[in-house]
Amino acid sequence: MRDVDWDRMYLRQAQRAADIAPWLRQLDLRPGDRCIDMGCGPGYFSLLLAAEVGAAGRVYAIDDSATALDRLAREQSARGVANICRIRADGAAAQLPVGDAPADAALVAMMLHHAEDPAGVLGNVARLVRPMGRVVVAEFRPDAPGAVGPALARRLAPEAVRAWCEAAGLEIILLERGTPEHYLLVCRRPAAPAGSPS
After folding, report:
1. Model pLDDT for residues 18-52, shown as the tens digit of each residue
2. Which residues have C-beta within 8 Å of that of residue 2, sequence separation ≥ 6?
3. Alpha-carbon gap, residue 170 to 124, rounded angstroms
4. Distance of CA 33 to the CA centre of its chain
5. DSSP class of residue 148?
6. CA-to-CA distance for 80 and 83, rounded, in angstroms?
7. Which residue from 29, 31, 38, 167 is spatially nearest to 93, judged by alpha carbons?
8. Would you identify the CATH topology of the domain 6-188?
9. Between the CA atoms of 127, 30, 81 and 73, what dihedral angle is there, to the nearest 10 degrees?
10. Cβ(12)–Cβ(45) below 8 Å
11. Can you tell me the distance from the alpha carbon of 147 to that of 194, in angstroms, rounded to the nearest whole number?
12. pTM: predicted TM-score of the whole model, two decimal places
């Protein structure tokens, strides 16, 4: 995204703090886990994830905006948060640092409607998460009142997002209306067949 006021975006993310509680529960994170925040923007959600996984865990905050990641870096410094790894990359092509194991979970929150290749983003997330790892996708409902978020015409139908997840090889666990403006899709990467590399 160009010409974004990332301070303002951070405040908007913070205003959704109540909305994200169900997302965090569905990720089922444990201390020491590794979690991706895909399309993290200024990183409010990344900071919440970092608290969930604790000092022994790691959050991979991925965004293609250097200024968004700079905003997150300042917040990390101010709060003394060291377990977030900022990665500047397009979501459809992002990789975790060389040598790191697959992530245990991934959050894809309110970013697919910005992506040039949303199906590619979900395909890449499926590749980056370990077998049986959870992926939580949250997006704005196209049939919502439209009081917050993007114009209704820019919103993605949950059926389309579900189809992209299934095409990426993700199993659908749950699709539900989260709030009057949002929906929530919970998936997992299937278990690897016996004898195959994970």
Report:
1. 778 888 899 999 999 999 999 999 999 999 999 99
2. none
3. 11
4. 15
5. S
6. 9
7. 38
8. Rossmann fold (3.40.50)
9. 20
10. no
11. 48
12. 0.91
